[in-house]
Amino acid sequence: MSADQTSAPDAPSRPSHFSYEDLLACGRGEMFGVGNAQLPLPPMLMFDRITSIGREGGAYGKGHVVAELDVRPDLWFFPCHFQGDPVMPGCLGLDALWQMVGFHLGWLGSPGRGRALGVGEVKFSDQVLPSVKKVVYGVDLKRVRQGRLVLGIADGWLEADGRRIYEASDLRVGLFQAATPAA
């Protein structure tokens, strides 16, 4: 298999969606195994469910993830960002996109712990206010490298109540295995 190949013909079938309880299990390290990709636990877990994930599809045909967050006025960040002017921090929406790219790499069976490595460009055209009911996030994989180097590069977006308000290009996430201590 090529190190750039996004799917293996003999790869086992994987679920195409995940509940909140599934995402919590991932955050506890129970989904992909010890030392492998994990989502953060609440409050830093930025979505409630993954509604679609695949090794094909998306804008580039190399994989996709779609996730949703039910927005409630009592979410932890609204009272502190900003008092009297509540808005979801844009960096949390960006982090959700990185979380999804890392989850995709773990879902493919790649080993290692996920780390955000960068982003090309981010554009915010509006904001997520407490009046929003649902945020939908999407990432479209552009490149998946599985080998000694595990790397996902994707473009991402955020929609608030059906209107696209964030776009990010070249989100980069790598999976890294812990170095073995010298004997």
TrEMBL record:
Keyword Transport set for record: no
Keywords in alphabetical order: Cytoplasm, Fatty acid biosynthesis, Fatty acid metabolism, Isomerase, Lipid biosynthesis, Lipid metabolism, Lyase
Pathway: Lipid metabolism; fatty acid biosynthesis
InterPro entries assigned: FabA (IPR010083), FabA_FabZ (IPR013114), HotDog_dom_sf (IPR029069)
Reaction equations catalysed: (2E)-decenoyl-[ACP] = (3Z)-decenoyl-[ACP]; a (3R)-hydroxyacyl-[ACP] = a (2E)-enoyl-[ACP] + H2O; (3R)-hydroxydecanoyl-[ACP] = (2E)-decenoyl-[ACP] + H2O
Main location: cytoplasm
Single GO MF descriptor: (3R)-hydroxyacyl-[acyl-carrier-protein] dehydratase activity
Cellular compartments annotated: Cytoplasm
Superkingdom of source: Bacteria
An annotated GO BP: unsaturated fatty acid biosynthetic process
CC terms in the record's Gene Ontology section: cytoplasm
Annotated signal sequence range: none
Active-site residues, as the UniProt record annotates them: H81
CDD domains documented for this protein: FabA (cd01287)
EC nos: 4.2.1.59, 5.3.3.14
Oligomer status and interactors: Homodimer.
Family: Belongs to the thioester dehydratase family. FabA subfamily.
Function description: Necessary for the introduction of cis unsaturation into fatty acids. Catalyzes the dehydration of (3R)-3-hydroxydecanoyl-ACP to E-(2)-decenoyl-ACP and then its isomerization to Z-(3)-decenoyl-ACP. Can catalyze the dehydratase reaction for beta-hydroxyacyl-ACPs with saturated chain lengths up to 16:0, being most active on intermediate chain length.
Official protein name in the record: 3-hydroxydecanoyl-[acyl-carrier-protein] dehydratase
Species this chain originates from: Methylobacterium aquaticum
Taxonomic path: Bacteria, Pseudomonadati, Pseudomonadota, Alphaproteobacteria, Hyphomicrobiales
